[in-house]
Design brief:
Serine Threonine Protein Phosphatase 5, Tetratricopeptide repeat; 35 strands; protein biosynthesis; guanyl-nucleotide exchange factor activity
């Protein structure tokens, strides 16, 4: 072990790993460096530079295996002064380089793993002190400088503290924690020392977690923490892609060529070594603004040996390591987790966006037809055009993109200069730069189309399809493919595969990767496969059909404010005639797809015995008490709304109460904290707790609206809140416009949604009627919007026929 003194005045160095040696984004990465892939229209390298500058890094080493020429050209164009050894500041470059004084690109063409890269780093002998190790696909606002300070403080006390791993807690069902690549960290809670690390792939399935017995022996645990045998076993953490390393770390890779991966081999090897006295510590990042994504404190801040307070090193940092994680990171940027780096304020080295409410952002010069619909959480790049009846939701659209009429795009990512024809359906896919999609093309989830390819017309690509200008050969891995791609000249165009990609197609449709179970004869070959990159695991990193329901997002909603005193004519001119109460709006027929509210007991309830009924009532009473206490605790400790929703679901299943009880408790809890006289505070509160309302309303939005109406009627101080609340849940897409119309037509909009005593019910009856009347402008607006769309569609059809 080296025992050099650590000097804080030493310039902070950073090592950036540009390659991750996986095929998760292939074939896009055959033609461009992974570190230059755009996330929210900003290259990953720009996110990296922003993070490093904010951390106070002065010298950066970029280690790259492939596409070295492209990376060097980008750096020389973007940061010409920083690439020169004599420069001290980047005059004329982006302001993110204000603290960075020097950039050095180190080519490691022979590296085929992180371990190989670290051994090359050691051979160059450029690291002078403790340094920051970062994956180029890590994106966020983590306060790394505070973690570096804590690491240095540890090193002063204990020279064996060689590494601090940065992690972030996430919800159990979050797609930020992919099923195929999960970790279990065993930590000494009083010191945050990492005691053991387990990799948990989906295949081969691990039915039990093996931990060394000595972790639970009193003498061993007391020697670590000064306490008894106390350890925390955490499976709610994801690696942020950032670590603070001592100068001893690169030589350790050189001494042991078995170290290939960072966590799986190096960290596990250090922790299980009988010869080394090295220690590794874990930083669990409290989310920025003290909004916790996990219950409790990361570790006991009052115990001896603890460094800093629970709030130090706060923030968000997540790796865009696969398609699913790429989507999660993109959505979290739009919802504000990376504040202040958001489209509403500014993105690193990017143009300005205008905010259209409901997390919709429009770049400079971008245009869209009046009949086009830009849905929730969408980013449209500069100079892009959306033509008639285009429908985009949860999408990131690059610059200069053209989308043809009647095309629908959902949960997709279109990079710069993409052209999409008419009548296309794109779902959960990534289209590289300058891709052309001709008319009537359907792309299913998980599809990746590399730059400059052409698909169509009249083509349907199945889930998980890959299209590239380069042919795929099953016997070669990504390393060889990229080498082959580099050898091909830029003007060499592969022959089109008309059958697979359409008459106008250009490129090759790759054969899907095998994901089924291996035969017994393949077991020997299976032993040589990487556990995580095994096809049975790799398929789990693609975009999932239920991703939108479980992503780590929405806590910081940057949505439009509401005004509690807004008048009913805010959406429509009040001079228009009142909606006729005897019209079609009053039909009791429920819109298809939305469950109707039921005020009767569930099937079979009437046949319950007295004891069963009493038991049910006790469970219900107990649930309401525990749910209210849980929400109070979440509110006081400023937990994330997603975590509060998960805890409510757990309580509901334990108490065996219907989902309607969860809706009633959650909605009443949120509305009770809304002050009509405090408009700004109420708006902020609904922004923060909107995800909870969306979650509990999801399976019956009609009933949720009825509960909101009933609560407002029973609490006179909230009657003025109902209309702006209705606008808020409509604008923020907490409920759909179809659900609002269904609620209006349903009898539940004319009576209380739950039972109260006769006196209160009688007093609330006329208020229910009045609140329904106040909702008329919103209903009228929805109806006129639908009629306008239908008329324009009919006009367009007639013009086409002529």
């Amino acid at each position: 072990m080296a025992h050099e003194e650590i000097h804080e005045e030493d310039p902070l160095q950073a090592v950036v790993l540009c390659d991750v040696f996986t095929q998760r984004f292939s074939p896009v990465t055959l033609d461009m460096p992974r570190c230059l892939m755009p996330v929210c229209n900003v290259p990953l390298l720009e996110w990296t530079m922003e993070t490093l500058a904010r951390a106070g890094v002065q010298e950066v080493f970029l280690l790259a295996t492939w596409h070295i020429g492209q990376i060097r050209a980008y750096l020389e164009k973007k940061y010409p002064a920083l690439s020169k050894p004599a420069s001290s500041k980047a005059s004329g470059t982006s302001n993110i380089a204000s603290s960075i004084q020097k950039l050095t690109l180190i080519a490691v063409p022979e590296a085929r793993s992180v371990g190989d890269t670290m051994r090359e780093l050691d051979a160059h002998q450029v690291i002078k002190s403790d340094f920051l190790l970062m994956h180029a696909d890590a994106v966020g606002n983590l306060d790394i400088s505070a973690v570096v300070a804590a690491h240095r403080q540890r090193r002063r006390v204990d020279r064996n503290a060689i590494m601090t791993i940065c992690t972030m807690p996430v919800a159990t069902d979050s797609r930020a924690k992919p099923v195929g690549d999960q970790s279990v960290f065993t930590v000494a809670p009083s010191t945050s020392q990492l005691l053991y690390y387990n990799l948990v792939p989906a295949f081969p399935r691990k039915r039990c977690l093996k931990l060394p017995l000595d972790l639970f022996e009193a003498e061993y645990a007391q020697a670590l923490s000064g306490k008894g045998a106390e350890v925390d076993v955490r499976n709610d953490l994801v690696h942020c892609g950032v670590d603070i390393c001592a100068i001893d770390v690169p030589p350790l890779f050189t001494e042991n060529f078995d170290y290939q991966g960072l966590l799986r081999e190096f960290v596990q090897g250090i922790l299980t070594s009988d010869l080394l006295e090295a220690k590794i510590f874990l930083h669990i990042a409290p989310p920025a603004n003290a909004t916790s994504t996990s219950s409790g404190v990361p570790w006991d801040s009052t115990a001896p040996g603890s460094l800093g307070s629970p709030a130090y090193g706060a923030g968000y940092m997540l790796r865009a390591s696969g398609m699913a994680a790429y989507e999660v990171v993109s959505n979290d940027i739009l919802t504000g987790w990376t504040y202040p780096y958001t489209p509403r304020l500014r993105l690193p080295s990017s143009f300005n966006y205008s905010h259209l409410s409901s997390l919709r952002f429009l770049g400079e010069g971008a245009t869209y037809a009046l009949t086009a619909r830009i849905g929730f959480r969408s980013l449209i790049g500069s100079a892009s055009r959306l033509k008639d009846e285009v429908d985009v939701h949860h999408c990131t659209i690059g610059s200069r993109v053209i989308i043809g009429a009647r095309t629908k795009i959902d949960h997709a990512f279109l990079w710069d200069d993409v052209q999409v024809g008419e009548d296309c359906v794109l779902t959960g896919c990534i289209l590289g730069h300058n891709v052309t999609i001709l008319d009537n093309v359907r792309l299913e989830r998980g599809t990746i189309i590399a730059s400059n390819c052409v698909v169509g017309p009249d083509v349907h690509l199945a889930r998980g399809s890959r299209v590239s200008l380069h042919p795929y050969r099953e016997s070669e891995d990504e390393d060889q493919l990229i080498d082959d791609a580099a050898d091909e000249t830029s003007d060499k165009t592969p022959s089109s595969n008309a059958e697979a990609l359409g008459a106008g197609g250009k490129g090759y449709l790759w054969e899907p990767q095998p994901a089924g179970d291996l035969d017994e004869s393949d077991e020997e070959d299976d032993d040589d496969l990487d556990e995580i990159e095994n096809p049975r695991n790799a398929k789990l990193f693609d975009m999932d059909s239920n991703l939108a329901q479980v992503e780590l997002s929405d806590t910081y909603s940057e949505l439009s404010s509401i005004d509690a005193d807004s008048e009913p004519d805010a959406l429509l001119d009040d001079s228009e005639d009142e909606i006729d109460s005897e019209t079609d709006l009053d039909s009791s027929q429920s819109t298809s797809g939305y469950g109707s509210i039921s005020l009767t007991l569930p099937n079979g309830a009437e046949s319950q015995t007295y004891g069963e009924k009493l038991e049910s009532e006790n469970r219900l009473h107990e649930f309401r008490g525990e749910a209210s206490a849980s929400l109070e605790r979440a509110f006081e400790e400023n937990h994330a709304a997603e975590n509060a929703a998960i805890e409510l679901k757990t309580l509901r299943m334990a108490s065996n109460v219907p989902p309607s009880e969860v809706r009633r408790v959650a909605i009443a809890f949120v509305l009770a904290r809304c002050d009509v006289e405090q408009t700004k505070q109420t708006s902020d509160l609904l922004d923060q707790w909107g995800p909870l309302l969306r979650d509990v309303s999801n399976d019956d939005q009609v009933e949720a609206l009825a509960v909101m109406q009933s609560y407002s009627a029973l609490n006179l101080s909230h009657t003025r809140l109902f209309l702006p609340l209705l606008k808020k849940v409509y604008n923020d897409e907490i409920v759909s416009d179809e659900a609002i119309l269904a609620w209006w037509r349903h009898p539940s909009s004319r009576k209380l949604a739950y039972e109260v005593d006769d006196k209160r019910a009688a007093a609330a009856k006329p208020i229910i009627t009045e609140l329904r009347k106040r909702a008329e402008p919103v209903v009228r607006h929805i109806l006129e919007t639908q009629e306008s769309s239908e008329e324009e569609s009919e006009t367009q059809s007639e013009d086409d026929a002529e």
